[in-house]
Each structure stands twice: as structure tokens, then as C-alpha cells.
Amino acid sequence: MVKTLDIKNRDQVEKINELATHTPYEVWLSTDTLMLDARSLLGLYALIGKRVNVVTEDSVDPRSLDRLVHKMA
To answer: Cα dist. 33→18, 48, 60, 62, 66 in Å?
Structure first.
């Protein structure tokens, strides 16, 4: 599953990382040129100011992903 998210600042990066570490499934963030594990805080800083896709396995409940992305925003 894929959802879109704008990453605006450092606080949001830290919140995304915190939420991703507590999910029971893998969460990835991708742009046109790269794909990063949302649990990797260092890599996430490269995404500040960019629109990313939040990517999970297709087996993840769509409502669960919607709630996660809403919390990340």
C-alpha cells in the first residue's frame, strides 16, 4: 500500500521515526530516487522538505495505514 506525505521539519521526522518503530509491520518512505526504512532516523533527515510515499506491504489494513499517515503528518 502507498500513501503520500509531505515532510516539513525535524520534529516531524522524529515523530515519523517514533511511530514507525512501534508498528507491527515495516514502513518505508520513498521518493523518485530513493527508498528508506522509516525506522532509520539518520536517513529520514534527507527527506525534509520533500513529498514522499509511505509504503507498506499490501497485507496491511488500509484503515491502519490511514491512521498511521495521519499521525505522521
So the answer is: 24, 15, 24, 25, 24
What are the average pLDDT values for consecutive 10-residue runs of the chain, which has 73 residues?
95 97 96 94 94 96 94 95
Q: CA 1, 3, 5: angle at the middle one, nearest 5?
A: 150
- Supply the pTM of this predicted model: 0.91
The torsion region of residue 27 among left (phi > 0), alpha (psi -120 to 50) and beta comes to beta
Q: For the chain, state the CA radius of gyration.
A: 11
Q: 39: helix, coil or strand?
A: coil
